[in-house]
Amino acid sequence: MNYESESNAGVADEVASSSDEAPAQPPELLVVVPTRNSGATLERCLASIREQSVPCTLVVVDNFSTDNTVEIAHRWADVTVSAGPERSRQRNIGASSAPSTYVGFIDSDMEFTPGVLNEVLDAFAAGAATVTVPELTIGTGYWANVSRFERSFYQADSDIEAPRFFVTSDFLAIGGFDEEMTGAEDWDLGIRTESFGPRTRITGTILHDEGRVRIFELAKKKAYYAPGVLLFIKKHGAGATLKRANRQWLLSPRMVTTPYGVGLLMMKGLQVVTMSWAILKARRTPGQ
Fold first, then answer.
1. Residues forming a β-bridge with 130
2. Contact, 216 vs 269, CB < 8 A?
3. Quick check: helix, strand or coil at residue 16?
4. Lesser CB count within 10 Å: N end or C end of the chain?
5. Which of 123, 65, 60 lies closest to 94, judged by CA?
6. How far is CA 153 from CA 149, 205, 266, 269, in A?
7. Exposed/middle/buried for residue 231 (C-beta within 10 Å: 0-12, 13-18, 19+)
8. Count of beta carbons in the 10 Å neighbourhood of residue 142
9. Quick one: what percent of the chain has pLDDT higher than 90?
């Protein structure tokens, strides 16, 4: 692979105080953060990782940002890497950029709450093969509240919540994320790692800062993910896809008892239309 890797001078290895002193062992946990023009949220993301109660090797893989993303990464990360074109490849490159026993992934608009990495290591020590971290949506405006309302239905749903942490040797053995997928790649990886052993869901959470959410941006994002969803259907069939398309909120009385129920129906209706259009377009494109 041709990519540039730079070690952050601020976290360079300390010089041994004596020639016979054993070199420090690298942390057993590696955390990868893929980025692209993430200056608005990256500092909070990386700070939340550094503030954890256990050490980790922190790797930022940047997709040639034009804002101050790389400058922020150099202040916090052990390693910064420039690579693209998509987050699946960025994550795979990051996972191979430093030695580790376990590897995990978090997006640049997310933050770990305190104690997450400690719980992750405890889960692995207890026999987990993969670890899921619950995710909570934060943001501003009505549509952010609608997104948070939707996510509340998915808590502890193993078909929707994908694992974020893996035994590094297992992750590398299966080739990591499918680099052809721009959507549903986390579900795909979750399925491909099931045979390695049990999945543990911890109690600590990830806060996903979606900022000021706009309904048409949410629909546009779904359309962008459509080719990846189409690949997921081809790889895993209709059964696995339908399990992840099942939305319990359709059967919930809460739909008519909260101010966000109608908004959720509007949002999902628009997303279904844009996703369906994008999938049909992808199916007509040679090579899809």
1. 166, 199
2. no
3. coil
4. N
5. 60
6. 7, 15, 17, 17
7. buried
8. 14
9. 56
Beta bridge partner(s), residue 34: 61
Write down the architecture of domain 4-9+25-213 according to CATH. Alpha-Beta Complex (3.90)
Q: Angle, nearest 10°, between helix axes 261-284 and 142-151?
A: 80
Alpha helices in the chain (DSSP H): 42-50, 69-76, 87-95, 116-125, 142-151, 168-173, 185-192, 215-245, 261-284
- The residues pairing with 111 across neighbouring beta strands, listed in sequence order, are 207
Which of 11-25, 177-191, 226-240 bottoms out in mean pLDDT, i.e. has the lowest? 11-25
Place of tokens 């990591």: 176
Token pair listed for 261:
């129920």
Query: Residue 61 pairs with which residues in a beta bridge?
Result: 34, 81
Q: Where are the domains of the chain?
A: 4-9+25-213
φ and ψ at residue 211, rounded to 5 degrees:
65, -145
Spatial separation of the C-alpha atoms in residues 138 and 252, rounded to whole Å? 22
